[in-house]
Amino acid sequence: MFQKLLARCQSKAPEHGFRFNNPLYSLDASTIDLCLSVFPWAEFRSTKAAVKLHVGLNHAGHLPEFVAITEGNQHEVNIGKLLNFPQGSMVTFDKGYNDYAWYNQLTDKGIFFVTRQKSNATYRVVERHCVIKSKGLTSDQTIEFTGPITSKKCPIQLRRIGYRDPETGKHYVFLTNNFKLAAKTVAQIYKARWDVELFFKWIKQNLKIKTFVGTSKNAVLTQIWIALCVYLLLAFIKFQSGIRKSAQQILRLLQLNLFEKRDLMALLRGDPVNEKIHNCNQLVLL
After folding, report:
1. Cα torsion at 260, 262, 266, 269 (round to 10°)?
2. Could you tell me the residue range of the domain that residue 159 belongs to?
3. Domain total of the chain
4. Is 123 part of any domain?
5. Burial class (CB in 10 A: 0-12, 13-18, 19+), 42
6. What is the pLDDT of residues 46-68, one digit of tens each?
7. Is residue 100 in a domain?
8. Can you tell me the distance from the alpha carbon of 270 to that of 257, in angstroms, rounded to the nearest whole number?
9. Of 251, 242, 236, 264, the residue nearest 203 (C-alpha)
10. If you average pLDDT over residues 248-268, what whole number do you get?
11. Could you say which of 119, 168, 232, 273 would form a disulfide bridge with 5 (CB–CB 3.0 to 4.6 Å)?
């Protein structure tokens, strides 16, 4: 059901806000905490239980296009390696997905990535490029890894970009295998990764995946998949109607009018209730 709903949403989804045409994905995972005494099958640590929700969020419509639910101790990068992103895609992820061999594999598949460089990475600068410092850029370099193990896992050249956030003053160092995009665009792509964090926050707050109806593994997984299906239904309504209301506003509106017999589009537009039709329906029921 999730895949069928996703296909319907993809046909209606708007494009992402960047100028390039490559599909853009943000990859991340979020732990859903459980009580160990109630969910012993989901043992995460000695006193804790959990499952982990892995999502590859497509920025075209902010749709969870790649989803996996695993044990809480499953490492993010192991699931990331299994995802079959389309060739030419742009994928952004944080340092939790650091795997130099995977960087090489993505490049071989024709998939671009943007991530942050680990502070202990050893490398040499092959070439330096000019940057516009007024845009917050501090460096734009072509590098090669020099570590004895790292250089074997990732023998390719990568692009290293330094950027200082003008609002917070924090300095970031990004790695990418894309040498064509502007350095500022690369920084903006990584900043857009925050959308997947907002996605996790939204579904946890609005779609009831903190408290579970059943305690079995099947019950927990079913409730999470239902929540994701509801998210897609809301996205489809938003795309199809063209209204400017947020998904949360649409959800609240539907919850308040759950037992009202009204035209959905009229409800979303905020049209006044037709009292005559309402009364007529009541008489028919009697």
Report:
1. 10
2. 114-186
3. 1
4. yes
5. buried
6. 889 999 999 999 999 999 999 99
7. no
8. 12
9. 251
10. 85
11. 232
